[in-house]
């Protein structure tokens, strides 16, 4: 039974920390190529620290929010999680649309006739 719990905690850690690390890494790499931050390492490090700090703040606030809601039942905890997921999607929607427009842009192939 203890090995099952250990395995579940290990998989939960991998599934939560992995995407979080990928997101902060990708955002940092994307900001590193931005023209407005080119050559300004102090501004870039400030932006990356804000992103990382917000992730840590969310990780700290999550258990606190769960503690407030758990008295009403587990259903409300999952409803609040769904609300946070929807808010995250709304905050990222403009960036998602911009990325999809660049990926789905039709390309024209030129064929040279002999």
From TrEMBL:
What residue intervals traverse the membrane? 6-31, 43-66, 72-93
Entries under InterPro entries matching the protein: MFS_dom, MFS_trans_sf
The topology of this chain with respect to the membrane is: Multi-pass membrane protein
Primary location recorded for the protein, binned into one broad class: membrane
The biological processes this protein is annotated with in GO are: phosphate ion transmembrane transport
Listed A to Z, the keywords are: Membrane, Transmembrane, Transmembrane helix
Q: Where in the cell is it found?
A: Membrane
- What SUPFAM superfamilies does the entry give? MFS general substrate transporter (SSF103473)
One MF annotation (Gene Ontology) recorded for this entry: glucose 6-phosphate:phosphate antiporter activity
> Which residues belong to any copy of the Major facilitator superfamily (MFS) profile domain?
1-114
GO terms for CC? endoplasmic reticulum membrane
Can you say what this protein is called? MFS domain-containing protein
């Amino acid at each position: 039974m203890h090995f099952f719990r250990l395995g579940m905690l290990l998989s939960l850690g991998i599934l939560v920390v992995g995407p979080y690390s990928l997101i902060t890494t990708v955002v940092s790499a994307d900001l590193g190529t931005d023209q407005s931050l080119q050559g300004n390492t102090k501004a870039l490090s400030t932006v990356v620290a804000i992103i990382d700090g917000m992730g840590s703040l969310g990780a700290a606030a999550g258990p606190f929010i769960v503690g407030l809601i758990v008295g009403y039942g587990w259903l409300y905890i999952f409803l609040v999680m769904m609300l946070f997921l929807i808010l995250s999607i709304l905050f990222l929607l403009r960036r998602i649309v911009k990325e999809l427009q660049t990926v789905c842009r039709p390309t024209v192939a030129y064929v040279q006739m002999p």
